[in-house]
Protein 1
Amino acid sequence: MPKKVLVVEDNSDCRELVVIHVRRMGYQVIEAATGEEAIRKASEQIPDLIIMDLGLPGMSGAEATVQLKENVTTARIPIVAFTAWEETTHEEKARKAGVEAYLTKPTPSKVFERVIQNILSPHSSTEATSKNSSR
Ligand code: MN
């Protein structure tokens, strides 16, 4: 069974790109356009990871993260912030809310994939170092 990733993003074009990318990595994808929808879908479907936009209409991604972490059903799901908001002012707040990692848009594909894979399969990403170095 492929692991399940919930992509939370209000901009549909942006969400589509992330969804395609995550799907191409071999994961099953669930989508949400708001924090409220994210909380509902996360508690119903218990994804293995949540990719969370911070700038959302209504509840912010940081608020949604706090609520997800306060709910026993969803508290253990790792959350990665993926946002255009630069880290100097927003990362600390997001970390305090409970995000595992903070990625700023645009993030190079390799970095995006490494962060996601390291959280979902922390022990299976070692093969990249030896084989790919000869290129
Ligand atoms: Mn947004």
Note: The helical segments are 12-24, 35-45, 61-70, 87-97, 109-120, 127-132.
Protein 2
Amino acid sequence: MAETNLSALLDRYQRVIELSNDLASTLDLNSLLNHIVHAAADLCHAEAASILLYDEPSGQLQFVSSTNLDAPLMRGLLVPVDSSIAGWILTERKPAIIHNTQEDPRHFNKVAQATHVLTESLLGVPLITNNQVIGVLEVINKNKGQFTIEDQELLVALGAQAAVAIVNARLFQQSDLISEFVHEFRTPLTSIEAASQLLLRSEVTEEQRQEIVHTMRREINRLNDMSTTFLDIAQLETGRSRLNITRIEAGRLLEEAVVMMQGKGEEKELSLKLQIVPQNLCVCADYDKLKQVILNLLSNAIKYSLPGGEISITAESREDDVIIRVSDTGVGIAVEDLPRIFDKFYRVRRTDDMVEGSGLGLTICKRIVESHNGYIQATSEVGVGSTFSIILPQLSLPLDNEPLRE
Ligand code: ADP
């Protein structure tokens, strides 16, 4: 009997070693987190597993990955450090096994409301690396029996490897992003530098001086926009962007966006039309972020249209999804460019001197829509126009019409 137990234990440790190797080679943060939670649930024979990372700005724990929680809901879910079991594990830097969470005063009940999974038993370990605690790895509800000290030791071993891998993936992602941005910042900086040299020359006429200053200001604005967008992208890519999910009436949101962009459309003699949207068509999303996506698409439709054109926006439901469409009769996008327009900094060569832009607008749109578990796609024909469609799942809110965030 003892021998069988020993060989089973060795098998489980062997599994931890294999998993550690897999984790060390995954540098994409989201896939890494997903990998860790599934490995943890599997290793401890548990119903579900989650990772909560400490979020410095809010001083709370934030769900970043879970085997049983949809990404949009999860990202809005904050867990207070001072009144939760995960918070206790984080502060005490100690693992914990709770056989009956409902009787534990530290249990934070709102998670069960969001996941629809009642937490009966729980095993959690702190994620520590370099003597720094970055979060908590939890498994809940053992499939058979109770969590044991053996489960705890295995999860501690997995947690130690997971913590190192998480920190590495974050660093890798940041350095990747930073090098891309430094590269892109160089062009406007070089042109500001060249313009300032020109300004110093005595033979420059007043008219030329005005033009040079204008160029400099345009490049400075571009740098400014790029910095703001950079922060947005960095937050979305490192999973630090929080969503405040509420139930949104699609018609109202689209109307608000059209009203905001009407003036810009009129300046270019374009008509902006809101098509009829089914009444009570609702989507669960972060209002401000979804509005940002729609405003971005409308702004592009205006930018890449010629006077006299038409822009229309509509929303409809299809099975379990809500589809929002922004269509224009603008210059269109060639087939060879279409697959790349959502890439960072990608601007179609034919249109890049038509209007100013950073090539980041659609990247942000894509990231925001994906953080809602949705996707965005474009169809287009050169000289005819383009249609951008946002497809979002019709999620249901765990609490009646209330945002998830504390
Ligand atoms: P930009 O700041 O250049 O507008 P985006 O990421 O928003 O960056 O868009 C990337 C590229 O996709 C644009 O440079 C443009 O060539 C093309 N594009 C985007 N929207 C449209 C549209 N509605 N019609 C035609 N081309 C578009």
Note: Residues 397-406 have pLDDT under 50 and may be disordered.
Protein 3
Amino acid sequence: MAVQDASVARLEGLKKGVNCRAVVVLGPPGAGKGTQSRMIAAKMGVPHLSTGDMLREQVGRGTKLGKKAAAIMQAGDLLPDELVNRMVRERLKQLDCAHGFVLDGYPRTVAQARSLDQMLGRLFGCGPVVIHLQVEYNELIQRLTGRRSCPACGAIYNVFLKPPMQPGVCDAEGEALSLRLDDQEHVVRERLATYENLTRPLVDYYRGRDNFFEVDGRRQPQAITDQMSALLGSVGWQAAT
Ligand code: ADP
């Protein structure tokens, strides 16, 4: 049996609802979705699924999808819903998602949220727990335009908020730090505008559901992770570690 068939069979065989631990981390670019999603996924022992990372991987590999994605991402726009929905649907069918996952950067439009509801209903018989990270505009600009990362070890710095010891150089690796192309200021402003127009309406889409939570994203990362863990504990999802 092919891996794909095996995983679908396994998913269909699961008692629907019992294993559904789908977390959606919602928030503007720069709110800390990536950092928090990774921490929460590690604590829960489930995969961290970032559509931004998946697309950047395609860009890096120079695939057909990657070529299409590169231009759109560099303009600060969103990929077409259908394309991203399909990418996520295929990912959720993989075996490692059978006991839950943390979604980062998806859904990003109301159409994607509707599609996710359908996928979760069909595959797992449940809805997501949604955590909305809130950070104000000026802080987002500083966080994003100041962000630099080490191509060797992935460490993240910020020229305003968390500078490396030597400007432009990774403390651990000595490598020159790089700026994500979409973190240039004009692209950042476009990404934030896209967020306001297309993604912010999602907050209203989810608000009012039982499992929707607002979290203040301006605090120290650890304090935010602790609050998110406590919220997940409150819906019965205890951390694996
Ligand atoms: P951020 O949240 O910091 O803007 P991401 O790494 O999540 O960055 O995404 C980078 C880019 O990838 C987005 O600006 C967008 O162009 C594209 N992208 C990621 N997720 C989606 C999605 N769900 N729908 C459409 N485009 C997406």
Note: The chain has a mean pLDDT of 90.
